[in-house]
Specification:
By secondary structure, the protein is an alpha/beta fold. Helices cover 50% and strands 15% of the residues. The strands form four sheets. It has a six-stranded antiparallel beta sheet with strand order 1-2-3-6-4-5, sandwiched between helices.
Length: 554
């Protein structure tokens, strides 16, 4: 428990004693160790003094709805929480909680008198080893990013997995968090925030939540809600000689720390985007998913990036409301807030814009397996050409139609009718704002052009996932169909005709074409599809990166 202050000291605290303390802390002689230069930094909730070897952080006596530091006892408690929690991802950085005492009208750091304030004492890390500075000097490479991804993946796995933490990831809680953000910032819409963009981000966020409730529920079942960092960004990560040090987690509100691991990662990915390093953000997500096989990260990350960008808007709006020390800082903060809102808008467009997935390739190449998994991950419909074709001609899916190649229901006219029907069904889904999957050979350039035209006319993304496989493996799979069940009527003796008539997808650009070797595991294929698609989408949405190229086969 915090020592009890006298009535006199309680009265003094009401007189804003922190201003007097900060005055003392601005003097080198206040500290019990050598100090030459003191650098001060301020946020909406704390005041920080950097003295060279050590850092002292004092919490402001504020109540911002999501935190309450209004009493000395609460500040004392949360100082200790900060030290305890931050030791999870740092070593020998968070040292102690030290009292600031008052005696005979003078303040002393851990000296004589009665405690009137408390400070978190930290070892000062070298500023030039901070991630944000290393990025600007091009000192961050893929090896370091992979090391960071491994540290984070191990951190999340080792965190407690208990019911009260899981409940923090409940759909209702996430909805409440989002609604709270919009409620607390609504007063700034039309003034600090662009009213139109504010409403679009709000609408897109709530719409995604209501469409994807099952996905959020499944994250709890798969134990992806953990005790995370809560404020993971480039300014809080240091690459030191002692290894990676991650500081400044959220200690003041468990609700902001108990969350989906994707939300934690999304904060860092969003910050990397904001700083101008989207490729590194994508590498981090890619490496993380490779180590965890948590492909749902790619489905959720834009939603959480939007949420995180909007949180930064809210924090800045609060700071502006409090009043900045000078006009120059105010102008800078307003611009920063606008940039965060625009970033949130970009993410909202990405996760609300429907996608036409065309899973194509030779018969027997694994299209249906990939389509089923995409359908499961995104919880969207799949339309399979073999089923649609037979339906058009009054046949059941399991009715075998072993006709000569290119005749009957497989004639040119029948195929045109089938592909036309596929596009109509897909268009119905896209017009409802839903993504959709088409599972078909798409071996003709004409059919691919029509699919692209339909997607463009309906302002939808389109991605061709081409399933490729060694010829001998395809033939083995087709031979197995002779004695097993398959909706497809394609058999071994049809292979050479299919091969001759299959037109390579050479006309498709890198921005819509992903090739996957389906001889690899399904997990590996999906990781590549989702990672590459996410990278394509992020590049297409960012005009500053439109000239960047990627390899088709990562």
């Amino acid at each position: 428990m915090v020592p009890q202050a006298s009535f006199y000291l309680c009265s003094l605290m009401k007189m804003n004693h922190q201003d007097q303390i900060f005055g003392f802390m601005s003097r080198p002689e206040f500290y019990p160790h050598p100090v030459s230069i003191i650098d001060q930094r301020e946020t909406h909730i704390s005041h920080v003094f950097l003295t060279g070897d050590y850092v002292y952080k004092i919490k402001k006596p504020v109540n911002l709805d999501f935190l309450d530091f209004t009493t000395l006892e609460k500040r004392y408690y949360f100082c200790h929480q900060e030290v305890i929690l931050n030791k999870r991802l740092s070593r020998n950085v968070y040292l102690d909680v030290v009292p600031i005492n008052l005696k005979d009208g003078k303040y002393h750091l851990n000296g004589p008198g009665v405690p009137v304030e408390y400070a978190v004492k930290m070892r000062q890390l070298p500023e030039d080893r901070c991630m944000v500075h290393l990025l600007k000097r091009e000192k961050i490479n893929r090896v370091l990013i992979e090391e960071l991804a491994v540290i984070l993946s191990e951190f999340y796995v080792q965190g407690p997995s208990v019911e009260h933490i899981h409940s923090s990831g409940a759909w209702e809680t996430i909805l409440a968090n989002c609604e709270e953000n919009f409620r607390q910032t609504a007063m700034f819409a039309g003034e600090i925030l662009d009213e139109r963009i504010f409403q679009i981000v709000r609408s897109a966020t709530l719409s995604f939540l209501h469409r994807q409730k099952e996905l959020f529920d499944n994250r709890i079942k798969s134990k992806k809600i953990r005790d995370c960092h809560g404020d993971l960004r480039t300014g809080h990560i240091y690459f030191t000689d002692e290894g990676i040090q991650i500081i400044d987690c959220i200690e003041f509100n468990e609700r902001f720390r108990f969350q989906d691991v994707t939300s934690d990662l999304a904060f860092l990915a969003m910050d990397l985007d904001y700083e101008g390093f989207p490729k590194i953000a994508n590498d981090l997500l890619d490496d993380y998913v490779k180590h965890t096989e948590d492909s749902d990260v790619f489905v959720l990350v834009d939603f959480y990036k939007c949420y995180r960008a909007f949180v930064r808007c809210k924090v800045n709006c609060i700071r502006l409301q409090e009043g900045e020390p000078n006009e120059q800082d105010k102008i800078k903060l307003v611009k920063e807030t606008s940039n965060y809102l625009n970033l949130a808008y970009k993410y909202a467009v990405q996760f609300t814009r429907p996608t036409l997935w065309v899973v194509c390739g030779m018969p027997g190449s694994g299209k249906s397996t990939i389509s089923r998994e995409l359908s499961r991950v995104f919880r969207i419909k799949t339309f399979q050409s073999d089923v649609i074709r037979k339906n058009l001609y009054g046949l059941k899916p399991d009715d075998l139609s072993d006709m000569p190649f290119g005749t009957g229901i497989y004639s040119k006219g029948a195929s045109s009718l089938t592909y036309g029907r596929l596009l109509l069904l897909a268009q119905e889904e896209i017009e409802k704002g839903r993504s959709v999957i088409l599972d078909a050979t798409y071996g003709k350039q004409h059919d691919r052009v029509e699919a692209i035209r339909m997607a463009k006319d309906n302002d939808a993304n389109i991605v061709f996932v081409e399933c490729v496989l060694k010829e001998n493996v395809i033939k083995e799979r087709l031979l197995k169909r002779e004695t097993g069940y398959s909706v497809s009527d394609a058999r071994y003796h049809h292979y050479e005709d299919f091969k001759k008539r299959f037109e390579p997808l050479n006309e498709l650009g890198d921005e819509m074409h992903i090739r996957v070797d389906t001889e690899r595991s399904l997990e590996s294929c999906m990781e590549k599809i989702l990672a590459t698609d996410y990278y394509i989408a992020s590049l297409n949405a960012d005009p500053n990166n439109s000239r960047q190229k990627r390899r088709k086969d990562v």
